[in-house]
Amino acid sequence: MPSRLWADAGAFLRAARRESTDYTPVWFMRQAGRILPEYRELRERWSLLEICRQPELCAEVTLQPMRRMPLDAAVLFADIMLPLVGVGIELDLVDDVGPVIRDPVRDGNRARALRQIVPEEDVPFVLETIGIVSRELHPERGVVGFAGGPFTLASYLIEGRPTRDFALTKRLMYGAPDVWHDMLDRLTSITSTYLLAQVEAGVDVVQLFDSWVGALSADDYVTFVQPYTRRIFTAVAATDVPMIHFGVNTATLLDHIKTDGASIIGVDWRIPLDEAWARIGEGMGIQGNLDPAALLGPPQVMEAKAADVLRRAAGRPGHIFNLGHGLLPSTPLESAQRLVDFVHEASAVAV
User: Do 289 and 267 contact (CB within 8 A), yes or no?
Assistant: First the structure.
């Protein structure tokens, strides 16, 4: 169970449980590192994987943005591919590209090679990092752990690298459904075990990043992905930690995603926040959903767009302000800092 007491919960942790808050909490996907000069200095010496494998250093990167601005949650510095690295998948995390798999999964033999993860042995550095961050961070600021969703992990394994059309993924999904379902079953077991270990190590909230599941039709989502997503959330629900489900371009899937078991749905900027909330229902929380590119524009434009998100949320319990996807690498640090202050101040007036 989480190591920190909910009695000390700040705005983020209260909003994650749909409780009232004095202001709207805010954190950013990909906030750990990314836009910070001190992180870029570290990357001149170490790769992303090398940082992740050094818990003290990884915790430092996780906490760096928390020292720069009053964010309400720290997100673990990690990559969704780490559990797959832990079970023996050989890959490179290439800057400005993403995961590149050395031997992609294209048949049943390769899929069957995916073994169950033993987090304490395969990714002990992740658990140690969580422990350090949880101890050092003030209880009012949450710790967010995460994992990759089944479709997104499968697509990387099959395609061998990021893709726009998911052609190889869908070819296997349609043409060899037995292989697909076996792979998704194995990835689900890995992901569930990995998230449970993060909760035991001390995270307050978990987020499932099925970033690219929006590439599917609603019917294909229900047939090929939803059963596995539901298994993951069912497994984690036993811990009683809030669970966020996020994917890009998922507006057409919300009617199904809302039934998968998460307590908070993350939405991107392609759908107005109030419309998304109406679709998922008032009984759930919502996270989002400013376009990350808004932080590249003039401050007054960014603030106007952020104000529109807050207006659509209307001060309802359960809103966590975030971007509709991760911070862009070219985001000015000053814009991120200004946005955090703006959200806190503007929402405090509205609540």
Answer: yes
Residues 238, 175 contacting (CB under 8 angstroms):
no
Closest to 335 (Cα-Cα) out of 308, 303, 305, 304: 303
CB neighbours (10 Å) of residue 197? 22
Is 308 buried (19+), middle (13-18) or exposed (0-12) by CB count in 10 A? Answer: middle
State the first-to-last Cα distance of the chain, in angstroms, to the nearest integer: 32
Q: Nearest to residue 264, comparing CAs of 281, 287, 248, 232?
A: 287
Closest by CA to 114, choosing from 170, 166, 56, 181, is 181
pLDDT 10s digits, 304-341? 999 999 999 999 999 999 999 999 999 999 999 999 99
Tell me the whole-structure pTM to 2 decimals. Answer: 0.95
Residue positions annotated with a catalytic role: 30, 34, 43, 79, 156
* Percentage of the chain modeled with pLDDT above 90: 89
Of 282, 280, 284, 279, the residue nearest 263 (C-alpha): 284
Distance CA 222, CA 336 (A): 37
What would the DSSP string read from start to end of 279-337?
HH-TTSEEE--B-GGGGGS-HHHHHHHHHHHHHHHTT-TTEEB-BSSPPPTT--HHHHH
Cis check: omega of the bond before 322, within 30 degrees of 0:
no
Domain 6-350 sits in CATH 3.20.20.210: yes
Whether the CB-CB separation of 185 and 228 falls below 8 Å is answered with yes
Q: Would the pLDDT of 6 be above 60?
A: no
Distance of alpha carbon 186 from alpha carbon 122, whole angstroms: 16
Q: Cα(263)–Cα(280) distance, rounded to whole angstroms? A: 10
- Label the pairing between strands 264-266 and 205-209: unpaired
Other C-beta atoms closer than 10 Å to the C-beta of 255 total 11
Of residues 289, 241, 290, 281, the one with CA closest to residue 257: 281
Both structure tokens of 69: 């601005």
Please report which confidence band the pLDDT of residue 8 belongs to, taking 50, 70 and 90 as the band edges.
Answer: low
